[in-house]
Amino acid sequence: MDFALFSHVPWPEGADPKQVYDDITEEFVLGEQLGFKSAWMAEHHFTRYGLGAAPNVLAGHIVANTSTLRIGSAIFVSPLHLPARLAEEIATLDILSGGRIEVGFGRGAASSEYNVAGVPVEESQQRFQESITMIEGLWTTKNYSFEGKHYKITDANLVPLPIQKPHPPIHIAATRTKATQDFVAASGHPLLVGVVLDTEDAMSLCHTMVNLAKEKGQNMNMGDIPFFRYFYVAETEEEARADSKPALDWNIDMIQWRRTFDTGSEVWDKMEDFRNTRTELPPSYDYLYENRAFIGTPDQMIAKIKALHDQGIELFGCNFSFGGMPQEKVLKSMRLFAKEVMPAF
């Protein structure tokens, strides 16, 4: 079984962006030393939820500070990009990294990101499908032409081409939207499972997508699906809960808060003001602890991961640095994971 790292690169109030980037770099460099296979970052715009606004710039920095770690996007919000430009940037990164790039595509979930970018949300599904088709075509086809509703290119030859052949591995995120599920199943690429679904629902989605891909003549291997969870391991369950609660509360509150914006964002407002005025609560810490996050002792984490492995998951991703978790706790948890959990697999 392989293990990965994942982060939204969160930016809580009072945190310095440079320090946030330094911390995620330190985390990923340590991850390489500890034996993690890959590290993945999310793309987000105009929000404290994550500082992944320039994902390929950040990925280039991580590439320059590592030598064996595979670097992934989880995910590129492809409808917000010019497909040809994104294809060029990823190909360049693949060359600079020596072929260490993993690609995750998705539609994203925030209408505020689409609105500020000037992309109509109602076009997201079609742009999502067209952009992925076009990027893959540019990576693999000489004199490539494509004409969709939103994107068009004629006799294009991408320079440079990626070093991995036929192209860097592609993973595509899906949740409950049938059109997205159908597209992913027919694409020939594996699903990517983020941290936002409950674990039971996420596993059900994996089985659904594997079966749907088979119906469409494709072979989606469960072992190729990156499966990410909020993650924190400590010597005792009490310590794990106490350390993780403030960060997980911040994370889930931020998800709820940013959904209240169709335009603009929460960047210049205070979370406490939102917490004091909201009229409904998000899922509680206890609910997330039981159903979504992997938080506890090494033995508890081994049991939870083994349950996934028994169903075919072979790439498990740990989101250690969620919600502004203090850096010393992130690194301590990573080291304990490598010492006590990894050897069990």
Question: Which key features would you list for this structure?
Answer:
45% helix; alpha/beta; 345 residues
What does this structure look like?
The chain has 345 residues and is of the alpha/beta class. It has one domain (2-344): Luciferase-like domain (TIM Barrel, Alpha-Beta Barrel). It has helices at residues 17-34, 55-64, 83-96, 111-117, 124-140, 178-187, 199-215, 237-258, 271-277, 285-291, 298-309, 327-341; strands spanning 2-7, 38-41, 70-73, 76-77, 101-106, 144-147, 152-156, 170-173, 191-192, 226-233, 294-296, 315-319. β6 and β7 (152-156) form a beta hairpin. α1 (17-34) packs parallel to α12, α6 packs across α7 and α11 packs across α12. The N and C termini lie close together (6 Å). 43% of the residues are buried. The mean pLDDT is 97.
Q: What summary fits the major beta sheet? A: 10 strands, parallel
Helical stretch tally: 12
> Which percent band covers the strand fraction?
15-25%
As for the number of domains, it is 1
By CATH reckoning, the class would read Alpha Beta
